[in-house]
Every structure is written in C-alpha cells, then in structure tokens.
C-alpha cells in the first residue's frame, strides 16, 4: 500500500456574494432598482482593497518617482516599481523590464506603432489584422499605412464570429512585417486561437502584437506560453483605475525600438548635440507617469490573483452558458457571435427595436449594458447590423442578474409589441 497520501484537488467554491461585498458600487441602486452592472467590457468596477490602496498611497506615500532622495519619493518609487513586478507576475513575463506602463491598451498599441512600426515598416510592407479588431488596433495601423505606404491585410471571420484560421497562412508573404490580433473580441466575446497564430507567424519570422484588453480580465494570461512579442491591456477593465495600462514586449524588440514620446525620465543624458535614451522600460515612460494608477493596478491584480484567474474564468463561463440558454427562449432575439470558444459577452439585436431603446429601457430597470458599434464597426458591417446591445459579464455577476436581464428584455419587447 502506498503510505503517501494522494494530493486531493479541490476547486475552492467560489462565493460570489462574498466577492460582491467587496465592491461598494455594486450595492447602489439605479432608478430605484438594485444595480445590475453588465458593461464590464467597457470598464469594470473597483473593489475596496484597490480603493484603500489608492487612499493609502495618496495619504502617506505620494511624491514624484525616480527623482529625489527624500522619503516620500523613495516610497512612491518603491510602490510604483513593486506594481510593475506584480504585473510581471500576473502575465508571467520573464523580465520586469518588459513591462511598460502606458495609459491603456490604446496607448500601448500606439507605442508599438510609433516605436516599432515607424522604424521597421516601409512602403509595400504588410500588416495582418483581423475583422474582429477594436478600432484601437486598426486606426493606428491605418495611420502608419497612410504615412509609409504599407498595406493592411485582414483575416475574415465566419458567421459564428470565429477567425477563418485556414485563411491565415495564405495572407503572409515576404513583405509581412507584423500581425495584430485581439485575444478576445470586445464586440462578440470570441476567444481567438492566438497561440496557434503566433506559432504560424513565427515560422515566417513575423512578430505578433496581441490586444489583450478583453482577455487579461477574464482568462489566465501567460505571455511566455503564448510566446507573443507584444501584449497590451488596460487597468480599468481589470478592476483597476483608469489612465493606466500595460504593454508587455520582448526585451530584444523593445531594445531595438525607438521611443514613442520624448521628455523627462526616458533619457540618460541630454545635450543639444546628443541625447542618450534610458534603458527599457523607462525609455518608453516619458514624463511623470500615472503613479497612483499604476499602484492601484498592482493592487487590482493582487485581488484577482487571490481569487484565481482560472476560478474567475470558470464562474464567467457558467454565467455565459446560463445566459445563452436563457436567450435561446427569447423570440425575436438574435445573438451575434456564437463562437465555440467564447468569453462572457452577449451581443444581440431584438427584432424591430433599436439597441439604443433597449439600453435606455433596461437602464430604467437598473441594468447597465452598452449599445452601439462597440468601436468595432468592421464586425458590425460583417453581420450587417449598425449596432447591437451588449451584456458583458464579470466574476462578480450572478445567475440572478442573468434572470434580471432576461426579464428586462422581455419587458422591453412588451413595450414595443
Ligand atoms: N482593445 C479592445 C479589445 C477593447 O475592448 C478596448 C476597449 C480597447 C482595445 C481600448 O481600450 P482602452 O482602455 O485603451 O480604451 N473596449 C471597450 C468596449 O468594448 N467598450 O468600451 C471600451
């Protein structure tokens, strides 16, 4: 007999009510009804430990960083750099120098466009994007194409909102210089096979930028496992503050890139004859950064990691399955985006009712959803709709909130019947 006890693998039960108690804003009422917050893809809410961390920083640690020998400056610098290390662990980056604080995903992508694109992409070179991209992973590349004469190629999607992976490899040629792809679509929730795409691109020697804005808050992200060259995400979708985000980049690439912004902190020495740039990551962090926000984001990833990103993903998947099955009982509802592999985003239209009216009426029931094109107009064009209503879930949402949404949709349909 084996004397050693077998390890027992128990998934800790996820207590959603306990988690909700951490979020002051989830306790408020809207229009006299308990808030049902289903606009997490736009921005998620902040738990008390993150709020407390911001207050502690502002009350006892605030000063400018990397500049002075006084105590507060040292405290602020230590807390800021500690936050960088927390973010490094959160995405399993091999080197802390590969974590650059930006103002968000948009700025992170623009940094790659200016730092990498303007240096290495020329007339006739090609960039591969996908139909699923958010405007912030389209427009910077169009600006670059306009400036340089580079060409953008687009990987299409099928009727379920999944990338047509079989058409990916044929898009490459000798002029392909970069692939930009979202890890998770904000408009449809499709989870893209980025690991597979990165491997295919690397076979051709082409670097890949992953827009992780909608993945980092919902799935465990491991940049070493993905082997991505760049990974961008935003703090405010991750229970952190606005005005902060991260660009992960492989050190070898970051070293070769030119700075995006010039100013203080990004230099080693300046004269009118010659300026020497600072080492990475500081080369890309010109000026006083959003110190408080970075520290808040560090607290946010601590909070999420304590719950466990796999636990978060499992709870959100259960919400998605339940909501999808409830939606299938609603006549006149068309679900846009039915990918096999999907995050908890439900984009839909209701026959004969404009999404704006749906959103306005749901708000009267205290339910927050987003309506519109979700900054993904090529996705809307693909499905021939001008807009959708989108319910996007977070780990603090409940099955009862799915029921509230379904009841809300039924009453919207009654108003328009
Ligand atoms: N990429 C994706 C996939 C996104 O979903 C968003 C924001 C961005 C980039 C830009 O992020 P930012 O933090 O720099 O603005 N998406 C949404 C949304 O779906 N609704 O509001 C913002």
Describe the structure.
- The chain is α/β, with parallel strands linked by helices.
- The chain has two domains: 53-305, Type I PLP-dependent aspartate aminotransferase-like (Major domain) (Aspartate Aminotransferase, domain 2, 3-Layer(aba) Sandwich), CATH 3.40.640; 308-416, Aspartate Aminotransferase, domain 1.
- It is built from 13 helices and 17 strands.
- It has helices spanning 16-20, 48-60, 71-90, 105-120, 139-148, 194-203, 223-226, 251-256, 291-307, 309-327, 355-364, 377-382, 399-416, and strands spanning 29-30, 33-34, 36-37, 99-102, 126-130, 151-155, 176-182, 208-211, 230-234, 245-249, 267-270, 275-277, 333-336, 345-350, 367-368, 370-372, 388-392.
- The chain has a seven-stranded mixed sheet with strand order 4-10-9-8-7-5-6, sandwiched between helices. A four-stranded antiparallel sheet has the order 13-14-17-16, covered by helices on one side. It has a two-stranded antiparallel ribbon with strand order 1-2.
- Helix 6 links the parallel strand 7 and strand 8.
- Helix 2 (48-60) runs antiparallel to helix 9 and helix 10 (309-327) runs parallel beside helix 13.
- The longest helix is centred in the first third of the chain and has 20 residues, at 71-90.
- The radius of gyration is 22 Å and the shape is globular.
- It starts with 15 loop residues before the first helix and ends with a helix.
- Residues 1-7 have low confidence and may be disordered.
- Bound molecules: ligand 7TS.
- Ligand 7TS binds at residues 41-42, 104-106, 134, 136-137, 182, 186, 211, 213-214, 234, 370, 374-375.
